[in-house]
């Protein structure tokens, strides 16, 4: 029997240190999540945002268009992985320092480093300290695990078991901190509770309920079809975490080439005359028959009521800027009917949709409907917005679309198809359906129009299906009499177009 000259344990400490560091990293991320949940104070939030901002435009476009929601989920996963690595580096540093001194300070160094890096990234002290402590705890416990008395430090067997003890301590502490942090973070409510100034809640005005009831009443009775006021309104953000703004300290400024710059508080807006409008939104980056088109009842004020008192000279354009670092520019003329929404479907604006306030620019692609709005800047010359810098042309009016989302087989064997049609402020006049691949067309039944200049409509059609496979095609005619173009184009760069087609069996 010959023993290897270099015992395997020689290289184990390196691997163990890395494993311990990664486990400490997991604990750190969990600690951050425990306090911050999915807000920008969570370490992975700014990292995901940074990646979205710095990755090449083509990659982001690919992720939006091809991967869709999976793309943003991947981005979040990647950000969580990077966050783990960041804390792991702090843990490695702690261990390295610990090895060079006689004192068990590895955990303290790891904790302090992790907290410092985290606060640098998130600017959120509490979540960073908790993340640091969680990271340091795993390093500290693994250190204690190692320094348990062992009979002979030179023996290979006890070296191994010391290494195992160390790893075991790290696994156990990382698992409990990880699960604990995850549970704590998941329980956090990310709902907003807007400050009530003398109980003013404009979104709960008496007109709101009847309007919502009207939308419910006008919604077609087609199983599986999203009602006229969407049950689940889509969300598209440059970051994976929504800003947590405090309405009481939020302000909206009007700046740029105006006579005098102005600043409005949330209270100022609440005191203004509000209006309730149905407005539909559609993302320029969605697939032709995608799910990023929705409608809601919004409560808010006219944007021109905010801008005009600043004194408007001849500006060409406007740049809307937001608390998440997003900005979009478009012609001043489009601002004329702009709406600043502070409420949605009878409640305050949800965080995910821009709390405390967002812009709604009728008829235009979703991207210029800037959420978490903080500044309206009047410009003298054109500039690119966030997405235009990345190659998109998404600031103009929406394309006309008729989507096909529902194919039902009724009890009597007939087929029922349905979807939504939208053409921005041009409105929808007509939707036609073909069940023979486009040879013959019939008019679909349309939902009665909602009040509002920028609303979608539902359509449905019921027919006796032919034997076997057949092709259903849908096309809309907008309020100007223009038929939706048949030619298909991809979403990039100026939105999808073409007739939606589906094979039905
Ligand atoms: N501040 C901010 N506003 C934003 C975005 C964003 O990432 N940040 N995304 C835009 C895009 S691309 C779209 S399609 C709409 C989507 O609005 P929703 O998330 O309320 O559906 O918001 C727009 N406003
Ligand atoms: Mo969008």
Automatic annotation (TrEMBL):
Region described as Disordered: spans on this chain: 482-505
Gene3D superfamilies: 2.60.40.650, Oxidoreductase, molybdopterin-binding domain
One Pfam family from the record: Mo-co_dimer
Transmembrane segments: 20-43, 50-68, 74-94, 101-121
Keywords: Membrane, Transmembrane, Transmembrane helix
Keyword Ribonucleoprotein in annotation: no
InterPro entries assigned: Ig_E-set (IPR014756), MoCF_OxRdtse_dimer (IPR005066), OxRdtase_Mopterin-bd_dom (IPR000572), OxRdtase_Mopterin-bd_sf (IPR036374)
Domain Moybdenum cofactor oxidoreductase dimerisation: 412-487
Coiled-coil stretches: none
Residue ranges constituting the Oxidoreductase molybdopterin-binding domain according to the UniProt record: 243-387
Protein name: Molybdopterin-dependent oxidoreductase
